[in-house]
From TrEMBL:
Protein name per its UniProtKB record: Helix-turn-helix transcriptional regulator
SUPFAM superfamilies in UniProt: Homeodomain-like
Keyword Transcription regulation: yes
Domain HTH araC/xylS-type: 11-110
Pfam families, alphabetized: HTH_18
Keywords: DNA-binding, Transcription, Transcription regulation
Superkingdom per UniProt: Bacteria
Length: 165
C-alpha cells in the first residue's frame, strides 16, 4: 500500500474524530474507520501524525475547550469539559494545565485580559439594543428599525470604470 492511501485513511479517521469529539473512542473503533487492524492503525497513525490517536484526541478536545472558554462567557469550566468529551473535571484540569501551562481558570482570566472580545461583545449588545423589528403593513413583511447612528460610517462613492478581475 502506498503512502497516499495511508494518509487518506488516517484523514478519514481525523474527520470522524473531529465530528464526534464529544464522544468516547476505542482504538478498535478508530481502526475500523480507517479499515486497519488496531495494531497496524496505531503504528500508521503515529507515523503520519507524530502522536498517538489518543494524544491527538486529547489535544483537539483541549483546543476546543480553550476556544469555548474564551468565546462563551456564560459557560463554566466544568460544562466546557463535559461538552468537549472529558468525563471528569479533574482529568480535564490536569490535561489542560499540562498542555497550556496553567489551570483553565487562570488561563481564561489571562486570555480575557488580553482579548478585546469583551469590548466587541459589549458593542454587539449595544447594537442589539438599538435594533428592533417591526411589521411593515405595506410590504407585509418584517423590517429592521434602527437609529441612523449605526449607519454613519456608510459612504457612497462613484468610482471610475476599472477592471477588477
Amino acid at each position: 500500500m502506498e503512502v497516499a492511501e495511508y494518509t487518506a485513511r488516517v484523514n478519514k479517521t481525523l474527520d470522524y474524530i473531529e465530528s464526534n469529539l464529544d464522544q468516547q473512542f476505542s482504538l478498535d473503533e478508530l481502526a475500523a474507520v480507517a479499515n486497519f487492524s488496531k495494531y497496524h492503525f496505531h503504528r500508521i497513525f503515529m507515523g503520519v501524525m507524530n502522536e498517538t490517536p489518543f494524544q491527538f484526541i486529547t489535544r483537539l478536545r483541549l483546543q476546543r475547550a480553550a476556544t469555548l472558554l474564551v468565546m462563551n462567557h456564560n459557560l463554566r469550566v466544568g460544562e466546557v469539559a463535559f461538552q468537549c468529551g472529558f468525563t471528569d473535571i479533574s482529568i480535564f484540569s490536569r490535561n489542560f494545565k499540562q498542555h497550556f501551562g496553567q489551570s483553565p481558570t487562570a488561563w481564561l482570566y489571562q486570555m480575557r485580559q488580553k482579548s478585546n472580545l469583551s469590548q466587541s461583545n459589549s458593542n454587539l449588545e449595544k447594537v442589539k439594543e438599538e435594533l428592533s423589528v417591526y411589521f411593515c403593513s405595506y410590504t407585509k413583511s418584517l423590517k429592521w428599525n434602527t437609529n441612523m447612528d449605526l449607519n454613519k460610517s456608510i459612504e457612497i462613492k462613484e468610482l471610475p470604470n476599472m477592471t477588477v478581475a
